[in-house]
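User:
Hi there, any thoughts?
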Amino acid sequence: MRIDLHTHSTASDGTDTPAELVRHAAAAGLDVVALTDHDTTRGHAEAIAALPEGLTLVTGAELSCRLDGVSMHLLAYLFDPGEPALLAERELVRDDRVPRAKGMIAKLNALDVPVTWEQVARIAGEGSVGRPHVASALVELGVVPSVNDAFTEQWLADGGRAYVAKHETDPFEAIRLVKGAGGVCVFAHPAAVKRGRTVPEPAIAELAAAGLDGIEVDHMDHDLDTRARLRGLAKELGLLATGSSDYHGSRKTVALGEFTTDPEVYGEITRRATGAFPVPGAGGV
């Protein structure tokens, strides 16, 4: 089985619609794909309706968190999307995205970059606006050659010249909320140092003690040595080790299925989840 547990659609900051994403996942030879848009489950219904036969969808979301001043993301799988406490927290995070984006635009304008809210809103479309949309605007304007090049201290990285903070959930609270909604929690790209400061390993141990289920080991932002270190950490802490593409369509160069999760680990995730179940494809529409 080929299993990719971290992808994004136009419901957040990907460039594929949810329907396109599942069709592309099937064409890439995947057996299982998780749709994990940022702080939203809005793309799930469309993905399920279009799900090709032979492909299974894992519903989820990537939750924005912050621990001791360090931004981190928590992949939440197979939770009940209507559970009130987790839903309220996701809405709180999403509601802060527009003023945050406008704040970044104001900072860029002060740096003589002529980006506008109208441009960023056009790029975001129906998705939850975020830094990648602002980064794409910088690419359009020729300020940087790629989206990744916008995530530096010169521009949009944490603490960068045009960075603006947003509401982010305490990860211990996020784990409690996801568990309360019957879901499973995996720490996304925990050692992605190119994105900025990372959570130290003793803190990951504390998160594991609080109910964290796993860490994303095989990821485009982890080199081979980092993956080996994280795999050892997962074993030491009794955490599941996952792998995934973090696919964003054309916004990033990584391909669907470039990194995958072991079927036994996937099986354990589905065994632990009680809020929702993987959805088998029925041929789509």
Remarks:
- The first strand starts at residue 3 and ends at 7.
- The radius of gyration is 18 Å.
- The first helix runs from residue 18 to 27.
